[in-house]
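Retro notes
What went well: the complex prediction finally ran end to end.
Inputs used:
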Amino acid sequence: MTSQNTLPWLAVALALALLALGWTPARADEDKAPFAARWNEAAEAYRAQDYKRAASLYEAMLAETPEGHRPSADLCYNLGNAYYHSGRTGMAVWMYERALAIAPRHGDARQNLALARASLATPPPRPEPFFLFKPLALLLRYLTAGEWAALFAALFVGSTLAATVWILLGARSPLGRLARILTFVGCGSALLTGAFLGPRYYETERERCGVVVQDGATVRAGPGEDEEEYFQSAEGERLLVDEASVRNWLKVTRPSDGRTGYLPEEALRLI
Amino acid sequence: MEAHRNDRYSFSFPSIVFALGCAVALCATQGRSADLEVTAKVSQQVATIGSQIDYTISLVSHDAQIDSRQIQIPEMPTFGEGLRLGSARPQTSSRSSNLNGQWTHELDLTWLAVATKAGMASISNGRIAYRGETYDLTPLQVSIVRNAAEAMPPELASGDILPAQTNDASMDQQLRGKIFARLEVSKTDPYLQEPITVECVLYRDMSMANQVRNASWEPPDWKGFFAAEQDASRERGRETTVGGRRYVANTIGRFSLTPNQAGKLTIPLHAAQCALQVQRRRSSLFDDPFFDFGGFGAQLQPVRLPIAETTIDVKPLPADGRPASFQNAVGSFDFTASVDRSAMTTDDFLTLRIAIGGKGFLGSIGEPRLPDMPDWKLTETPSAKTEALNDNQALGGKKTFEFLLKAQKPGALTIPTISYAFFDPAERRYVEQHSDPFKIDVKKGADRKLLVAGGDATERTHARDSGGEVVDRIAYIHTDAPPASIAPPFYRRAFYLPLHLAPLALLALALAWRAWRLQAERHRDARELRGAGARARRELRGAAARLRKGELEQFHETLADAIRQFLATKMKRSAKGLTLEEIEAACLERGVREETAREMRRTLELCDQARYLPETVGSEAAGQTLEQAGRLLQEIDSAFAERKRRSGK
C-alpha cells in the first residue's frame, strides 16, 4: 500500500478518534437511592388515595431538579395524575403538557391530557394546523429538539466524513463511489433534519408557553385589575407568554386567534 | 405781564377719578373688620397662694395683621377676691405664621396677677373692641390653694394616679401632680372576646412640656387577654385637663386587648419611664457645665412613673337568644358565601368559599357549620385564611373558609342556605346572616370510581391486554423510579459545536491534501515533458553505440523504444499499446507536417521490420535511419512546442 493510499485511512481513523473523544457517557445519578425511596413513598400515598400528599411529594421531587437539567417525564406525569385526582384539572393539564414537552412519545401522558381536557367544564380551544401541514406538524413534534439536534449532528458528521473519504479516495475506487453516494444522501438528510430542527428549537428554547390553571381567568387589555376585560381564558388552555412580565402580570397571546392581553401570574404556569 | 399757568397745581379729570378710587379702596380696607377670634385664658387653674397667674386675652386673625392701636377695652374684666392685679397695663406680644398658604396672625395681651387668698377666685367677663367690633370675654375661675399638696389633681390624692419617683426625694415632692402616667381603657366592661384598646398616657404640666425626654412604657403581663400591640409612635401631644389642671398628654403605648375569659381581670401595677431635663448647679469652679448633656448645665434626671392597677370587668355572652349557628364570633361582621363554578361533572370538585369579615376579634370566628347536604360530600378538611387589618386580629379584617365538595350524582343539585351568627357587642345582641342557595348543574363524569385506586403500569397493561375499557379512563401512575433528572438537551452539551467543527476541519484537510496532490502531479508531468527530449537523445546515443558494436537487432529495438517513449511522453500517455496509427494521428493533431508524420511512421515500421528481419537492413542503412530519427524527433518536438506555445498550455 502506497503512502498516498494510507493517508485517507489515517484521516478516517483520526475522525473516529475525535468522535470517540467527544462521547460523554451518561452521568450516574448520585442521589438515586433517596429519590427512589421518595418515589415509592409517593406511589404509596397515591395508592392510598391520599392524592394531596402524593402531589406534595412529587412537587418536592420536582423542585429538586438541578439547574439546567429537566425533570423526568414520568415525574411530571405522575404529578399530573395526583393533581387530576385532587380536582386540580388545570394543574394536571399543565403537568401532562410538561411531560410531553420532555418526552413527546409518552403515550400515557398524551392519553391523560386528552381525558383531562375533555373533563373540564369548558374544554379549552386547541389550535389545529392546516390539514396539509398536519403530518409535518406530527413529525416535528414526534421528537424533542434535542433528538432532532442529535439526528442532525449524526447526519452532518456522517456526510462530512463520507465527503472526506470521497475526496481522499476519489470516485474511481468502489469505496470512493460509495462515499460519494453517502455524501449526497447525508447532506440532503441533514438539510431536511435541519428544517425540522430550526422550528423545534425555536419552539423549545425561544417560545414560552403556559397553561391556564384557574377557571375563568380574565385576560385584560393592560396589566392591572382595573384594566378593561379583553377575553376569558379557559382552564387548561395553552397560551404563548411574552418575555417580560409587568408587575406580576404576564403578557399572553392566544394562538387560536392571536389575541393578546395580560393575565395575572398566579393564573398561569409555564411549561 | 403774561399770566403763567402753573401746571404743577392743575389736576386733570382722570387723575381726580383715580385718586378718589384709591381713597374709597383704602377706606373700604380700613373700615372692614378682620375675621377675628378672641379668647381669654389663665396660665393655671390651680395655684398656690403667692404664685403668679397670667391672664391673657388672645386675638387671632387669618386675614390681616392685628393692629394693637385699634384695640380698646370698654369693659375690663374684674379679678375677684383672692387675686390681685399686678399691672394695669398689659404686656403685648404678637406673632404671625403661614401654614399651607394660610396666614395666622396672633396678638396676646397679658396681665399679671398674684394669688392672695385660698379659695375659688373668679375673673369676670369683660368686653374688648377691635375696629369697632365688640367681643365678649368668657369668665374664668382659678382655684387657689394653700400649698402644693392641695394643688394636686384629686385623682392623685385618691390613688388612681401614682406620684412620680426619682432618686431625689425633694424632686419627688416638686414633681407631685406635675408629671404622671396612667392607663386609659376604651371600655372597662367589655363582653367576652370583645376587643378594647388600652393606652398608656404620659401627662406633664404645661410649664414642663419641653423638659420631658425618652418616655417609654413596659407593658405588663396581659393575663386573661389576647394582646396585640399597635403603633403609637406618631401620636402628637394634646392639651387636656385633669382635676382642673391643664396638662400636655402624650400616648406612649397602645395595645388591643381581647378578653378570653369572663369575670374581673386585673391589669397589675407597673410603670412607665422618662427623663427630665433639669438645670444643674455648678458644684465648683472646676465643674464646667458646658460638657453636660444639653450643654450649659442641663442634665437628664430619670423618672419612674408608676401606673395604678386597673380592673376590667368582662361580661359573659348572654345565653338567651343564642342561635344554633353561633360559633363564638364577637364583633360586627358581614357573611358571604360563593362557589367557583355553576356547571361541573361528577368527577370534578366544587369549591365553596365562605368569607366572614368586619370589625371584631378575628380569632373568635369559628368554622361555619354546613347544613345537611345529602347530594354532596365534603372531601377534605376545609382550609382557612385570615387577613387581619394591620396584622392585628383585634382590629378586624376577613377570614375565609374553603370547602371542597364532590357531587354524589348528576342532575340539577342545590347547595342549601348556609347560616352564620355572631354577637354584636355594640348592639348587645346576636345577629344571624344567611346565604342564598346555589344551583349547580352536574353532568355525569368518567366515573373514576370504577378504577382501582392507584395501581401501576403493569396493571394497566394487563387491563389493556384483557381488552378492558382502558382508553377512556385515566391511566395509572408509573411506579418504576426514573432518574432524578434528565441531562440538558443534546444541543446544550459542551461538545455539540466541536462535534460539527471537527469533521469540517477534517474535510478541509482532505481538500487541501487533494489540491496538493494534483499540484504535485502537474509538476511531475511538466518535469517529464521537459526531460523527454534529453531522454530521447540519450537513448539515441545508446542506439548508436549498439550500432557501432554491430548489434543491429538491439539497435532497432532501442531506436523504436526511444521514439515511442518520446512520443508517448509528449502525448501524455503510456507507450505500452501505442499503435503507429495513433502516433501518426497524434502528430498530425499537434501540428506536425504530414510528411514528417509519415516519415516517422515509416521509420518505426522499418525498426520493427529490422527487429524481426535483421538481415534485410545493413549497417549503413541503419546509420541513416538513426540520423533520420534524430531529425524527425527534433521536428516533432519543435512542432509540439510551437503548438503548445500557441495554445498557451
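What we learned: Chain A is about 60% helix and 15% strand.
What to try next: split runs per interface for comparison.
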